[in-house]
Amino acid sequence: QVHLVESGGGLVKPGGSLRLSCAVSGFTFSDYYLNWIRQAPGKGLEWISYISSSGGTLYYADSVMGRFTISRDNAKNSLYLQMNTLRAEDTAVYYCAIEEPGEGFHYWGRGTLVTVSS
Amino acid sequence: QSALTQPASVSGSPGQSITISCTGTSSDVGGFNYVSWYQHLPGKGPKLMIYKVNNRPSGVSNRFSGSKSGNTASLTISGLQAEDEADYYCSSYTNTNAHVVFGGGTKLTVL
Predict the structure, then answer these.
(1) Measuring CA to CA, which residue among A71, A69, A75, A67 is closest to residue A14?
(2) Any chain B CB within 8 A of the CB of A113?
(3) Is A13 left (phi over 0), alpha (psi -120 to 50) or beta?
(4) How far apart are CA B50 and CA A116, in angstroms?
């Protein structure tokens, strides 16, 4: 049974930083591509970042490029998202998701809420 | 504004069929057979319902089917059931800067 659990969300002031984590169990973590996807209040899903199985290839959405950094620790079966220079528009539920190449996102966590507000 | 265009809402009665459209461009939906559909219920992570345009993951009901013509993909749900009421999102790989793009989502109401 594949299980993903996000953590690290919370309330942060504009310009602040936060680090999200995603703990994964139930499959061979190091074999798979991982992504972060978010949903702002009342809005749709927005893909924001991808990391390859080895961690050698990274992609970012324009909206977070230069501010967010995705990383993974295959020894700890964990995915991370370092978020810096946070803005009000970054307020959202952040989901981690496992990608099967060419098949989209087969497994998702329940998400963690990030609120950026003064 | 989302990269892919979906209707904001659709509705149908139990037992009926509905179709949700997802319109993109030749840089995404039209250029790849990598369209996916997700069902999203409040408080849960989205669930993959269709991948590669018309493939169902194990465990997904065969009442869900997908298709594509040109730059528009479609999700059809037949034999509507109350439990199908949810938000549905399409997504596609893209050859633009983004890795994947999503539609704005469609709220399905079962009357």
Answers:
(1) A67
(2) no
(3) beta
(4) 34
Coil, helix or strand for A112?
A: strand
A98 to chain B, closest Cα gap in Å: 11
Helical residues (DSSP H) of chain A, grouped into ranges: none
Bridge partners, B110 (sequence order)? B12
pLDDT of residue B1: 62
Structure tokens at A39: 């949903």
Q: Per DSSP, what are the bridge partners of residue B7?
A: none
CA atoms within 13 A on the CB side of A42: 1
Q: Does A97 touch chain B (CB under 8 A)?
A: yes
Residue pair A97/A34 in contact by the 8 Å Cβ criterion: yes
pLDDT digits (tens, 9 = 90+) for B56-84: 999 999 999 999 999 999 999 999 999 99
Chain B partners within 8 Å of A61 (Cβ): 97-98
Phi-psi region of B97 (alpha: psi -120 to 50; beta: other; left: phi over 0): alpha
